[in-house]
Automatic annotation (TrEMBL):
InterPro entries: ClpP/crotonase-like_dom_sf (IPR029045), Enoyl-CoA_hyd/isom_CS (IPR018376), Enoyl-CoA_hydra/iso (IPR001753). One of its GO terms (biological process) is fatty acid beta-oxidation. Belongs to the enoyl-CoA hydratase/isomerase family. It comes from Halocatena salina. This is Enoyl-CoA hydratase/isomerase family protein. It comes from the Archaea. GO terms for molecular function: catalytic activity.
Amino acid sequence: MIRTTDDETVRTVTIDRPERRNALTPAALEALETAVTEVDAHVIELRGAGSAFCAGADLDVVADLAADAAAGTTDPAAAFARLGQRVARAIETSDAVVVAGIDGAVRGGGLELALACDVRVATPAASFAEPGVTFGLFGAWGGTHRLTATVGRSHARDIALSGRVLDAEQALEMGLVSRIVDTPRSVVEEIADCDRETLIRLKSLMGTAGIADRTTQEDREAHAFAALVDAHANTLRS
């Protein structure tokens, strides 16, 4: 499900499950973590196969978490939230600069992982949403902090609380992405042409603010996600 290809300066990481819009299972999240941490290249391109970037958590996994909650334990739901948070942190703290090349739909947890990337660029076909609120959940992979930090409190609340879909132009206007391009790879190669040591130092300096606050927020996210899985267990299993 997670496919990697390498050249001298760039690792391409592809979420390769197009038949499920690149929805992520725990195994896929763990493979993604490995792909962004065990890397020699100084730029990573994160992309999705087919017509979507990433639909977020696999709904079959969510249904299993709901079954566990109905049986009396929300521990697996909290653990799944923490796994997604860990992968987002791995993207954020990777030695490589991570560029999300968003072509097609990005939803829920997929958007949260994109928010952890250093640079997000979109094609004209990209669309963005946090739809969990429409069926009783929310993304719990660090997005409540990163979305606000990226687009500001007003836009973040609008996106999260409405579940509405943004097109590429709206995402650019809000600052959710930095460019609209026909081929995200062109941005990847532009960054890869820069000095490796400078990229590493700049990423480190620009990425350390607010970590303590984010850790506290992620703990709250995991507990809230587990509570919602419990509250909506019957609906989520159907």
